[in-house]
Structure formats: C-alpha cells, structure tokens
C-alpha cells in the first residue's frame, strides 16, 4: 500500500500536473492539501476517469483538503479537526481505506509571528495531538499525512539563517511537532533519511527551485501498527520541476500488506 501526500496549491491550476503524477506513480491513497475550491467546484469526475474515488472538504479560495483512493471509495470518518466548534477552516479530512485510517492535514502557516495567526497554529497543533491520541488509544493503523508547515530540525532546511524568524521553525512550532513524535508517532521521511537534506517545498521566488533552496514541511506520521510495516518513503522531487508545478513535491510511504 502506497500512501502519498501532495500540497497541490490550487487544484484547478494544477489539475494536469496532478493527474500526470497520479497516473505515473499510482499511489493507493493520495491526500491533497490547498485544493482552494468550494465543494461544488471539486473535479471528482476527472479523477474517476483515471480510476480514483474521492472525498473532499473545500473552502473558497483558501485551504481545502481531499483524499483520493485507487479503485475504492474512501469511507469518511472525520471532517474538520475536533476541539473547536467555531473553527470553519477546511484543514482536516480523515477516511478509512483498505483497513487503514488516513488523514489529510493542512496545518496553519502561522505567519506573521508573533500574533493571532501564530497563536491559532499552536492551538491547532494541540488539537491535532489530542485527536491523534484518541486514534492511538483505539490501536487503529493510522497515517497522519500532509503539509504540517513545520520545519522540524535545522537539517530540514537549506539555510537556518534564512528561515530563523519564520513561524515554520519557531521553537514553539518545533516543540509541538516533537511532542507528537514523543507520543510514539513515526516520521517516515526522517526515519529513513536521518541525515536530513530532504526537501519537500521550494518557493517560487528568488530561484529557490533552481538553486535547491528548499525545506521539509510535508510529513508522513505513522502509528506503530503502520511503522512496523514501513518498506520505503520518499519525495517525488522531479514533479516540482515541471511546467506550472506546485511549489511542493509529493511525498509518499510504502506499507507492507
């Protein structure tokens, strides 16, 4: 089973690239972030035509997450992250696929910091940890994947100095992420690339892609039931270099049946 995550940065603008990636790499499950469309604008028929069933949680112009499954219908288990009934941002969607619980996550960016957006980011991370603990307690094989908007360690960024004031690598953001790892979740990419130097995002500005000035913010967190079955994990970096690409590259993990 191959579980992938892709911040597509606008599903309508990137649809040809997205379908290209799906057909070339054929993940069992593809979790998307930043679809940037209302529910009624989601192009489900386009995915159906290439064999993928979809569920989605949209929002006009911003955010939005989706889960695609190859040949099977994802069974939705949670829409929106619990813990704040007033939070209307479309950032969390969870489903059962082939006996595995998969969540597509688009964690708040948090800039500018300090300020209300950073405070919201930290509260959201606390809610995510609490919900993850409830899944853990049920011993459900779970993958929490997506754009976490956190650079966990200095080895996960091309230049620490360039990002030191950004919300993505503030001590509070990093600590919140590490608390989840401390609860027993396995960071698949970090586990298989302990020296770092693996990027998942390159800004459109300042020739970041051409100069390989990137960082790692797209993560695949696995419960023990899945971590024990992990075979491989990686980044489909070449897809970032294609015409009209997202500023993120897809990330993936392979799990033994």
TrEMBL record:
InterPro entries: AP_endonuc_1, Endo/exonu/phosph_ase_sf, Endo/exonuclease/phosphatase, ExoIII-like
Site label Important for catalytic activity, positions: 218
A Pfam short name: Exo_endo_phos
Cofactors named for this entry: Mg(2+); Mn(2+)
Residues annotated as domain Endonuclease/exonuclease/phosphatase: 4-248
GO MF annotation, one: metal ion binding
Keywords assigned by UniProt, alphabetized: Hydrolase, Magnesium, Manganese, Metal-binding
Chain positions of site Transition state stabilizer: 149
Active site location: 106, 147, 248
Enzyme Commission (EC) number: 3.1.11.2
Xref: Gene3D superfamilies: Endonuclease/exonuclease/phosphatase
Record text on cofactor binding: Probably binds two magnesium or manganese ions per subunit.
Protease in keyword set: no
Biological process annotations from GO: DNA repair
Site (Interaction with DNA substrate): 248
Sections of the chain in a coiled coil: none
Highest taxon in the source lineage: Bacteria
EC class: hydrolase
Residues that bind Mg(2+): 7, 34, 147, 149, 247-248
Family designation: Belongs to the DNA repair enzymes AP/ExoA family.
Stored NCBIfam families: exoDNase_III (TIGR00195), xth (TIGR00633)
Protein name: Exodeoxyribonuclease III
Organism name: Erythrobacter mangrovi
Gene designation per UniProt: xth
């Amino acid at each position: 089973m191959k579980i992938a995550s892709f911040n597509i940065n606008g599903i309508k603008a990137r649809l040809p690239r997205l379908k290209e990636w799906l057909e070339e790499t054929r993940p069992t499950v593809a979790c998307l972030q930043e679809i940037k469309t209302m529910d009624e604008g989601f192009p489900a028929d386009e995915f159906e035509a290439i064999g993928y069933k979809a569920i989605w949680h949209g929002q006009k112009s911003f955010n939005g997450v989706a889960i695609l499954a190859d040949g099977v219908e994802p069974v939705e288990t949670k829409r929106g992250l619990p813990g704040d009934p007033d939070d209307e941002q479309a950032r969390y969607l969870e489903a059962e696929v082939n006996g595995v619980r998969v969540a597509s996550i688009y964690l708040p960016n948090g800039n500018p910091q300090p300020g209300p957006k950073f405070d919201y980011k930290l509260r959201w991370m606390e809610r995510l940890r609490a919900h993850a603990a409830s899944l853990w307690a049920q011993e459900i094989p779970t993958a929490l994947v997506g754009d976490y908007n956190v650079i966990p360690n200095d080895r996960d960024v091309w230049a620490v100095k360039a990002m030191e004031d950004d919300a993505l690598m503030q001590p509070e953001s990093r600590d919140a992420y590490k608390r989840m790892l401390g609860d027993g979740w396995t960071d698949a990419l970090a586990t298989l690339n302990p020296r770092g130097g693996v990027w998942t995002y390159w800004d459109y500005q300042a020739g970041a892609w051409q100069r390989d000035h990137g960082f790692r913010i797209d993560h695949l967190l696995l419960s023990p039931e899945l971590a024990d079955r992990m075979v491989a994990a990686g980044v489909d970096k070449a897809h970032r270099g294609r015409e009209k690409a997202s500023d993120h590259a897809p990330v993936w993990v392979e799990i033994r049946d």
